[in-house]
């Protein structure tokens, strides 16, 4: 036996394969090293032995068997655990990657394969001029979507050529940092009056070099919709289980691309992962707003999120706004100066911006000592098994986060028939404007599941006030909160868009407008209606949005998407501890929902605001969460790795800590602390 000191003093051979493009030079090199040689010394020895005069600064050592980078150059081989049987690759850290953006355009750019995904996404967003990179991440396409694409390519008679935007000359993708003033708020960007994209004189603020004016237009402008035939060839989820598959491929933000098996020139999807769009501002977010709009549009066209026929026509009308506006632009409109249009957009969107941000610009001095209350006649509907629904009028009083109802107004001074605490409940709109139906569906958590209650309102104004109060109460907020009035305004504006009638100025002959209506709706409605019928219905709905600018139409579309009951829910198939059957877990920005996989009905809701702690047992891959009032839940994830759900929960909690005072700097360490886990 020899001592470790004596053993360490002996040299041994280390095989390193070099990834270079010089065919005349060998690729495998054998270095004689000792265990106390540091990684930087190994690379220096290697470069001296290669004898190729080139810039090696982007190269690093990759350990194939362990699937890890050796980036700590001061660490010794012994400390890293590298021995003679190790296979090391000396390769570039930045490699080409194809990214499919939310608008279905593919860009090709250089990305760091050695940085953790969180940092890589931040660098990608600098290239694409998307603020708030923490809201996005990289997603591997689902197996079902890939199978459908292969089938389409196989059936295609002509070879498929993908239109790829090449951004490989970017300084950020070469490993350099973006210009520090990229998002400086002292700038006053100038916008094209029609498209809402940055005008030529300011294009340099929106790029570090690869994003020319033409490229910026591709990313910041909405392009013509695809045909129903193309839509039919794309993967569309039919069930909750199908929707769960869409969310299985999120990459781990705390590990690098290479560590997760991503190879050079692979294709990934860049998507908004977290549905909390902070500080949306039309001045600085032309690309970001368009990409959010596109992600929403495709989610609706591919039926990844459910909506009613009435809502589908609203979405179609807002999309058609681009088409119709471009056809009907007068020379007078084209003569507007860019500066005046900026003011117009700011004025038109001031309230909407507040709503999307979740902030408020007015009512700051509101009297918070007196919590407002609502009191009115509503009808109560309780679903009953094996019988008709019971519909009865009552006198309702809404105060704090609870709603109470009485037999009549006179009895309101006494004890209520029932008091419903709405904190933590699910609030679902049950509206059909054409039929004058204004309902609010409440799913209230109780010990054995959810208590289902419907409130029926008489008109739009009453509905907007009560719906806004219910939404805030579900989040634990009262009507004294500054977001109450913007919420009422948002609901009323959405109802106004739904409430259309054919005006005398409406287009009598849909064929007179060059519009393909089937491009604006999902396949379900192209099968239900003939193109002429569909065009007429879309143009009816279009009357309420025809005066909007294109930027406003996009933001209205995003706002309408946010109003859908399923908005922001990411689904996973899980098995709860103690349960004998699978359930679906919906993860949202403020809650977790247990959903019956067969019926799609919510079973229980747990709010993040009531969460005390959560952890993961990495051995059995089980997520355990503790809530207030001694509520414990535990589940294993069947449709994806439990790390994805763990990261979702931590990510949403991290995003809730953001404030505008931070000057757009992120506490990356806190993000990894909340999402990383210890495997």
From TrEMBL:
All copies of domain PH, residue ranges: 379-475
One Pfam family from the record: FERM_M
Family annotation (Gene3D superfamilies): 1.20.80.10, Phosphatidylinositol 3-kinase Catalytic Subunit, Chain A, domain 1, Pleckstrin-homology domain (PH domain)/Phosphotyrosine-binding domain (PTB)
One of the record's GO cellular component terms: focal adhesion
UniProt keyword terms in alphabetical order: Cell adhesion
Listed GO MF terms: integrin binding
SMART domains according to UniProt: B41, PH
BP-aspect Gene Ontology terms: cell-matrix adhesion; integrin-mediated signaling pathway
Family matches, as CDD domains: FERM_B-lobe, FERM_C_fermitin, FERM_F0_KIND1, FERM_F1_KIND1, PH_fermitin
Cross-referenced InterPro entries: Band_41_domain, FERM/acyl-CoA-bd_prot_sf, FERM_2, FERM_central, FERM_CS, Kindlin/fermitin, Kindlin_2_N, PH-like_dom_sf
UniProt record similarity statement: Belongs to the kindlin family.
Entries under PANTHER family matching the protein: FERMITIN 2-RELATED (PTHR16160), FERMITIN FAMILY HOMOLOG 1 (PTHR16160:SF12)
Record protein name field: FERM1 protein
Organism for this UniProt entry: Rynchops niger (Black skimmer)
Gene name linked to the record: Fermt1
């Amino acid at each position: 036996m020899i001592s470790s000191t004596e053993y360490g003093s002996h040299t041994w051979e280390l095989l390193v394969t070099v990834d270079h493009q010089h065919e005349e030079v060998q690729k495998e090199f054998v270095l004689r090293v000792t265990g106390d040689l540091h990684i930087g010394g190994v690379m220096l020895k290697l470069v001296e032995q290669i004898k190729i005069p080139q810039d090696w600064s982007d190269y690093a050592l990759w350990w194939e068997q362990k699937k890890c980078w050796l980036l700590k150059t001061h660490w010794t081989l012994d400390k890293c655990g590298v021995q003679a049987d190790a296979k090391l690759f000396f390769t570039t850290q930045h490699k080409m990657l194809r990214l499919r953006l939310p608008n279905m355009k593919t860009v090709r750019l250089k990305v760091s394969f050695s940085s953790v995904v969180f940092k890589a996404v931040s660098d990608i967003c600098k290239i694409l001029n998307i603020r708030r990179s923490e809201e996005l991440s990289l997603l591997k396409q689902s197996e079902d979507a890939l199978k459908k694409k292969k089938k389409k390519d196989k059936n295609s008679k002509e070879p498929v050529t993908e239109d790829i935007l090449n951004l490989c000359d970017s300084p950020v993708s070469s490993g350099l940092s973006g210009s520090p003033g990229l998002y400086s708020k002292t700038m006053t960007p100038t916008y094209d009056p029609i498209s809402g994209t940055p005008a030529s004189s300011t294009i340099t603020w929106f790029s570090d070099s690869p994003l020319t004016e033409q490229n910026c237009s591709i990313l910041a402008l909405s392009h013509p919709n695809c045909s129903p035939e193309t839509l039919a060839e794309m993967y569309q989820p039919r069930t909750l289980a199908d929707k769960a598959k869409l969310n299985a491929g999120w990459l781990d933000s705390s590990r690098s691309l290479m560590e997760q098996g991503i190879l050079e020139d692979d294709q990934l999807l860049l998507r908004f992962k977290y549905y909390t769009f902070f500080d949306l501002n039309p001045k600085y977010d032309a690309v970001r707003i368009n990409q959010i709009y596109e992600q929403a549009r495709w989610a609706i066209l591919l039926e990844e999120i459910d909506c009613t026929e009435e809502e589908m026509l609203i979405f179609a009308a807002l999309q058609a706004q681009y088409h119709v506006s471009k056809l009907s632009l007068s020379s007078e409109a084209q003569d507007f100066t860019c500066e005046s249009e900026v003011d117009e957009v700011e004025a038109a969107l001031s309230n909407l911006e507040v709503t999307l941000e979740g902030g408020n610009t007015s009512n700051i001095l509101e009297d918070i000592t007196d919590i407002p209350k609502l009191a009115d006649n509503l009808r109560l509907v309780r679903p009953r098994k094996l019988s008709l629904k019971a519909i009865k009028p009552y006198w309702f009083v809404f105060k704090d986060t609870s709603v109470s109802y009485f037999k009549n107004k006179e009895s309101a001074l006494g004890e209520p028939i029932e008091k419903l605490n709405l904190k933590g409940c699910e609030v679902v709109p049950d509206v059909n404007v054409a039929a004058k139906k204004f309902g609010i569906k409440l799913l209230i958590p109780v010990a054995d599941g959810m208590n289902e209650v419907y409130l029926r309102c008489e008109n739009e104004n009453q509905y907007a006030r009560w719906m806004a109060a219910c939404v805030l109460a579900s989040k634990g907020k009262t009507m004294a909160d500054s977001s109450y009035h913007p919420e009422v305004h948002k609901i009323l504006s959405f109802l106004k868009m739904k409430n259309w009638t054919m005006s005398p100025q409406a287009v009598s002959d849909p064929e007179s407008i060059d519009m393909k209506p089937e491009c604006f709706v999902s396949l379900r409605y192209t099968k239900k209606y003939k193109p002429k019928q569909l065009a007429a219905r879309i143009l009816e709905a279009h009357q309420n949005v025809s005066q909007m600018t294109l930027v406003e139409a996009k933001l209205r579309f995003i706002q309408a998407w946010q109003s859908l009951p399923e908005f922001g829910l990411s689904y996973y198939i899980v098995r709860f501890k103690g349960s004998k059957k699978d359930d679906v877990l919906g993860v949202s920005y403020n809650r977790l929902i247990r959903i019956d996989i067969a019926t799609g009905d919510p079973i229980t809701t747990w709010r993040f605001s009531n969460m005390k702690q959560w952890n993961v047992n990495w051995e059995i891959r089980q997520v355990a969460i503790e809530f207030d009032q001694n509520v414990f839940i535990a589940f294993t994830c069947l449709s994806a790795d439990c790390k994805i759900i763990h990261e979702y929960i931590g990510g949403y909690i991290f995003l809730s800590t953001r404030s505008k005072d931070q000057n757009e700097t992120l506490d990356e360490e806190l993000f990894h602390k909340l999402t990383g886990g210890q495997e």
